[in-house]
Amino acid sequence: MDLFQYDFMIRALIGALIIGLAAPALGIYLVQRRLSLIGDGIGHVALTGVGVGLLLNQSPVISAVIVAAIGAVGVELIRERGRTSGDLALALLFYGGIAGGVVLVALSNDANSNSLVQYLFGSLITTSPQDIAVIAVLGLAVLVAMVVFRPALFAVCNDEEYARVSGLPVRALNLMMAVTTAVTVTIAMRTVGLLLVSALMVIPVAAAQQVTRGFRTTMVAAMTIGLVAAGAGVVVSAEADTPPGATTVILALAVFVAITAAAAARRLLRRRAQPPREIEPPDVVLQEAEVR
Amino acid sequence: MSVVSVRHAAVGYDGREILHDISLTVSAGEVVAILGANGSGKSTLVRSILGLVPLSHGRIELFGTAQRKFRDWARVGYVPQRLGAGSGVPATVGEVVASGRLARRGIFRPAGAVDKAAVQAALTDVGLIDRINDPVTTLSGGQQQRTLIARALAGKPDLLVLDEPTAGVDAASQEAFAGALGRFEEGGGTIVLVAHELGPLRPLIDRAVVVHEGRVAHEGPPPEPFGHHADPGHDHVHPHAVQPAPGICVAPADRITAN
């Protein structure tokens, strides 16, 4: 058999590989900030954008990018204020987003359950060459931004006050992150769907950090895991006739479980291999006790 | 020229004033300790100097420039009370210290040989060069604090601002700390530090400013330790900076059963 004799399969693979690289490159900053679920929320908001696009007979990808970006900037402004009501505001925004999307899609000419499912769970094989061009350009932009601004974004996510005192444009960097999140969510909706977008941002990072020691190595490892999971997801889903988005997420989770188990086994073996280990300096022991 | 000039500064949150009419001048090369009890407003004072807390009245100048217009933040090195809460994404000591170079090189230029050398020099200065590739979470509290001072020193600042740098820090780290600050001062640097107790930093201090209930209560040479603080080997720890001892944690449960 040769899966890739079909153009649509090649397009599907290209789209998946771009998302597989870009989503974890952004996700690592979101995880560092404890905003692992923000992608999910922005995905809800993006659905309203899809509805707007279908209603106006425009490209749903572009209208989704615009609406999701507005939503993401709104979320960032709420977060910046740090009010306790922010949590509630986010909930209103997210559920408003998904309800608005469902209603708008139903009102559009394209009103059948299929079009909604396509955006919620991804539909790579119906991706047109124009869609792939948009995904490639935007995905590349996200990748470049995340890699070029890594030191600055790391500083802001690691210690925002310190970054402020360093004179970094903290607000601009935060807004860039918000817009980048919206862009990534929207281009990933064709691959994994809006409901599973967050998985590709977070799971590769969670898997990588089980075995890495530094931020840069975590980023590289997470992007590799994302790339492999997305590529394998397309191939496996075609062979097994399963939805590509969900298949990719299951594969990424399998990598996470495998790495976590391997890391635990390695720790166990090391401990057994050298029982009369020299006593650690007391400060290290203290730190270990603190972590628990 | 004054490095820091605070004139009639007042700070309030939610209608409650925390600092009232504070004035303070720090000259180049001076080492000033801001002392006070917990809640006296001493941390708020340095945070307002750094621009992290807005003033409700008064004005602040840094290196002779009004703080609002001040852009030369590379001249200021900030050492916060502790490393931000870890999020689980690992970062090495070297990566955290490298953040200190951003103020100098800006966000667009990638790190070069100069940056790498500055990071290594700063880590050598605080005695942690051998831990450069270790995750910061594997370091002790004192070593993490030294990582933060290395981050500030890596930017080659003219002014160091430290917020309770030695709270709950082990003796070895306090010595390493005092050594690094001493060398910074000898190189002509200016230091403003907030402290609860001076410990091994005491010989460095030129002037102490005691803040009490949001006002400057005393200004002059650093006070001599007294009472049990003066005991040799006295290990002063902050109640809010250390993990509660297990015995203290047990007590409330007993009280609940008594109800």
UniProtKB/TrEMBL annotation, chain A:
On whether Transmembrane helix is a keyword of this UniProt record, the answer is: yes
Keyword Membrane attached: yes
- Identify the InterPro entries for this entry: ABC_BtuC-like (IPR037294), ABC_TroCD (IPR001626)
UniProt-listed Gene3D superfamilies? ABC transporter involved in vitamin B12 uptake, BtuC
Q: SUPFAM superfamilies, alphabetically?
A: ABC transporter involved in vitamin B12 uptake, BtuC
Q: Which Pfam families match?
A: ABC-3
Membrane-traversing stretches? 12-30, 61-78, 90-107, 132-156, 168-188, 194-212, 219-238, 244-265
Q: How does it sit in the membrane?
A: Multi-pass membrane protein
Q: What is its main location?
A: membrane
Tell me where in or outside the cell this protein is found: Cell membrane; Membrane
Cite the entry's keywords alphabetically: Membrane, Transmembrane, Transmembrane helix, Transport
Instruction: Give the record's family classification.
Output: Belongs to the ABC-3 integral membrane protein family.
Name this polypeptide is given: Metal ABC transporter permease
Tell me which species this is from: Paractinoplanes bogorensis
TrEMBL record, chain B:
- One matching Pfam family, short form? ABC_tran
Q: Which UniProt keywords apply?
A: ATP-binding, Nucleotide-binding, Transport
Q: Which residues form the ABC transporter domain?
A: 1-238
Q: State whether keyword ATP-binding applies.
A: yes
Using the record, list the residue span of the signal peptide; answer none if the entry has no such feature. Answer: none
Coiled coil, from the record: none
What molecular function terms (GO) are annotated for this protein? ATP binding
Where do the TM regions start and end?
Answer: none
Instruction: Return the InterPro entries for the record.
Output: AAA+_ATPase, ABC_transporter-like_ATP-bd, Metal_Ion_Import_ABC, P-loop_NTPase
Q: Which Gene3D superfamilies match?
A: P-loop containing nucleotide triphosphate hydrolases (3.40.50.300)
Protein name, please?
Metal ABC transporter ATP-binding protein
Instruction: Look up keyword Magnesium and say if it applies.
Output: no
